[in-house]
């Protein structure tokens, strides 16, 4: 028999009694399936199972993972709508972080994870600030969900700050680097196809590995990016068209492995890194994305135009490139105004005189 829930009741939560009088709890949203909750009513485990059931996903039995443990909470989080809202790339990245975290602290009670434990985890990764930031973002996502699901009272990540990298991240490719790579890997090589796709589209590594003819219409790439879900629009340049015509390309993707098979983001990254080493260049695929954005800023792309091509939002990333270009122009223009004439000065060879020439020459 279904019993009326006392108020205030949890939405979509129903209670029945067995023929022996024992209460049975389940969640049913509308006319959807009944999802049984086997945990004890009022406990954190019950609340977590209820939250998972609202998302249409039955929770793991608490006894299998240790009710209330960090590993148990991670398993529930990975079945939640909050986890489902993350991009596949972010899910893979955070799942790798959680696997390592479970090895060292998976059996600890979720409520025993303190701010100090989060800071210690960040500091263990201090030598690689990007890894430290990714760790903090993964744990922050977990504990924000746990707080919302009423599994904890305090979020231990709330005021923990990410480490600031000492550099601007992946070094940008110079024009000399670009020429050097293209000389080592000429047209007709798989390495050149990968390189020119990265350079002339500015796509991230994972998106570049997935790019194929199906994404191009009327000479424009139209693609939803893996990391952020943003739609990007990229004009195919003549240089890239020539490279793709020379091949070799796969049937589904331009960048391919042996036999024309598509590459995963990870395998592509490893293979391309080796191609860079062979060309004696210690740079990355992401550094080519920076080179592409630098070129576009030099060619007069506005911030909104950069965002449309690179899938950025908010102006922060685009402004890094336009600001650098504008600063150079402003500095040169100001110095010219300060001169008595507006001539340009060339550095002479040893033994020669300094020569000034007008800008009309």
Short description:
With 361 residues, the protein is an alpha+beta fold. It contains 15 helices and nine strands.
Describe the structure using short key phrases.
361 residues, hpI Integrase, Chain A, alpha+beta, elongated, 2 domains, 9% strand, 9 strands, four-stranded antiparallel sheet, three-stranded antiparallel sheet, 15 helices
Walkthrough of the structure:
This protein is α+β, with helices and mostly antiparallel strands and 361 residues long. Helices cover 47% and strands 9% of the residues. The strands form three sheets. A four-stranded antiparallel β-sheet has the order 1-2-3-4, covered by helices on one side. A hairpin with a 7-residue loop joins strand 3 and strand 4 (35-37). Helix 9 packs antiparallel against helix 11 (238-246) and helix 13 packs across helix 15 (316-338).
State the helicity in percent bands. 40-55%
Class of secondary structure makeup: alpha+beta
Order of helices and strands: EEEEHHHHHHHHHHEEEHHHHHEE
- Give the integer mean of the pLDDT values: 84
Low-confidence stretches: 4-8
Strand order of the largest sheet: 1-2-3-4
Number of strands: 9
Work out the helix count. Answer: 15
State the shape: elongated
Termini separation: 95 Å
Q: Whole-number radius of gyration? A: 28 Å
Largest β-sheet summary: 4 strands, antiparallel
Secondary structure layout:
Layout: E1 2-3, E2 13-17, E3 23-27, E4 35-37, H1 44-54, H2 62-65, H3 70-77, H4 81-84, H5 88-105, H6 115-124, H7 129-148, H8 175-184, H9 190-201, H10 205-210, E5 216-217, E6 220-224, E7 231-235, H11 238-246, H12 265-278, H13 285-298, H14 303-310, H15 316-338, E8 344-346, E9 355-357
Antiparallel strand pairs: 1-2, 2-3, 3-4, 5-6, 6-7, 8-9
Helix pairs in contact: 5-7, 6-7, 9-11, 9-13, 13-15, 14-15
